[in-house]
Amino acid sequence: MIPRYSRPEMTAIWSDEFRYRIWFEIEAHACDALAKLKVIPEEAARTIWEKGKFDPARIDEIERATKHDVIAFLTNLAEHIGPEARFLHQGMTSSDVLDTCLAVQLARASDILLADLDALLAALKRRAFETKNIPTVGRSHGIHAEPVTFGLKLAGYYAEFTRCRKRLEAARAEIATCAISGAVGTFAHIDPYVEQYVAQKMGLTIEPVSTQIIPRDRHAMFFATLGVIASSMERLAIEIRHLQRTEVLEAEEYFSPGQKGSSAMPHKRNPVLSENVTGLARLVRGYVTPALENVALWHERDISHSSVERMIAPDATVTLDFALHRLTGIVDKLVLYPERMQHNLNKLGGLVFSQRVLLALTQAGVSREDAYKLVQKHAMNVWQEGGDFLSELSHDAEITAHLKPAVLSELFDLGYHTKHVDTVFKRVFS
User: Fold this and answer.
1) Phi, psi at residue 146, to the nearest 5°?
2) Backbone angles phi, psi at 143, to 5 degrees
3) Which of 35, 149, 202, 339 is deepest in the core (most CB within 10 A)?
4) 275-312 as b/e, with b when 16 or more CB fall inside 10 Å?
5) What are phi and psi for residue 429, nearest 5 degrees?
6) Do 28 and 48 touch, CB atoms closer than 8 A?
7) 428 vs 430: CA distance, rounded Å
8) SS3 for 347?
């Protein structure tokens, strides 16, 4: 988590100040619940809210001696609250505070990421409709296949990120659980009502069985979801990088006035933002495996997961937030070259229409195997020698015996390949 790849709203969630504020609210709400149960005096609960203060620097100082962050925090609170501080943490264990706080942080981080996805989806939708009918060549294995439209490309990404958003919503719901159940999760020293009360106040649901910690399969699914989102981002980023290659140049990242592409070559315009998104996606995916390994803990708990989460929770969410924001900017300002798309579409002399010729021959009575051989023979000639595919076909008597020249010409109609664009758009955007 470094400033270069961080945005303030997300980094604030992982600050010491924010974390201690959530810790305090958990403890204070628990005291309110205990007061309602007559376990502690109501006046004590009020005093805790009124006098409860903390100093991160002082907490660090105490922790250097105690070697325990929650105890250091409670000690610092007691310095401000006074005698009533003895009612803090009644029947609770450290994980009640830590895990519930992490749930709040991840839920709030999710809200930012969901807003990021909404912004990306809006940009994709706008650009998809702008380019709905701009023809371009579709590629499989990096090789020209058949015509598509640029809008169809973007519609596919819109559908993919819509799925990503649904997955993140589910992951947010799954991660947002509260555990206030005490040592080994039996509620021996604290009433389950306290957990219900704190959960409601913190915007969480209760963890059915916490065993002292919230089960880490929830966290594994959360970080796995972030990893899938990162992979979808990389897929779009790589598409843009390929389209910006000099030999292709159908699309290009916006190159701002005064921007420099190379310290050595003044002519350079590089897809550095998309490359950056690719790199950041690798990082986010890298956090998935440690989260999966955190699931298998000893008995009712150990803390082998703790150091991992202190690293990956802020890093994964901060990195993904930044990358989503960057990708949205790339899509929003993406420069398109329709003329270049048309040039590339025509580059192979009409070979992109080979399948339609093949199908027309089969419908005219030629076996599929024979039709394939006929079409491929001329296709390979054009591929290797250049020329015009339609002209090649038109001079083959075996082909024209089944397909008259006028019929052959109709098979090279670009509109045939784009006639269902509206159908796809209705499926995606309705």
Assistant:
1) -140, 165
2) -110, 145
3) 149
4) ebbbebbebbbebbebbbebeebeeebeeebbebbeeb
5) -105, -5
6) yes
7) 6
8) coil
Angstrom distance (rounded) from CA 155 to CA 126: 10
CA distance 415 to 305: 57
**Catalytic residue (choose from 15, 68, 189, 262):** 262
Tokens linked to 386: 């250049």
Cβ of 61: how many Cβ atoms within 10 Å? 12
Note if 141 is an active site residue: yes
335 membership: H or E segment, kind and range:
strand 335-336
Please give the pLDDT value at position 258.
94
pLDDT for 186 equals 96
The Cβ of residue 265 has, within 10 Å, a number of other Cβ atoms equal to 9
Count of beta carbons in the 10 Å neighbourhood of residue 403: 21
> Which residue spans within 116-241 are E strands per DSSP?
135-140, 143-149, 177-178, 205-206
Does the pTM surpass 0.90? The reply is yes
pLDDT at residue 214 in the model? 96
Residues of the chain where predicted confidence (pLDDT) is lower than 50 = none
The C-alpha atoms of residue 253 and residue 212 are separated, in whole angstroms, by 50
Looking up tokens 């598509």 gives: 148
Task: Please tell me the predicted confidence (pLDDT) of residue 66.
Answer: 97
Q: What six digits make up the tokens of 288? A: 């998935």
| Residue 423 tokens, joined | 């159908």
- φ/ψ of 301, rounded to 5, equals 180, 155
Q: Phi first, then psi: give them for residue 340, nearest 5 degrees.
A: -65, -35
5 Cβ partners below 8 Å, 6+ apart?
A: 280, 318, 319, 322, 323
Candidate list 140, 141, 299, 430, residue with the active-site label: 141
Degrees (nearest 5) of the Cα angle 55, 59, 61? 120
Q: Position of tokens 């002292």?
A: 212
Nearby residues of 127 by Cβ (< 8 Å), 6 or more positions away = 154, 331, 332, 334
Q: How far apart are CA 28 and CA 45, in angstroms?
A: 7
304 DSSP 8-state letter: H
Q: What is the C-alpha to C-alpha distance for residues 78 and 341, in angstroms, rounded to an integer?
A: 69
- Non-local CB neighbours of 22 within 8 Å, separated by 6+ positions: 101, 104, 105, 202
Q: Is 140 a catalytic residue?
A: no
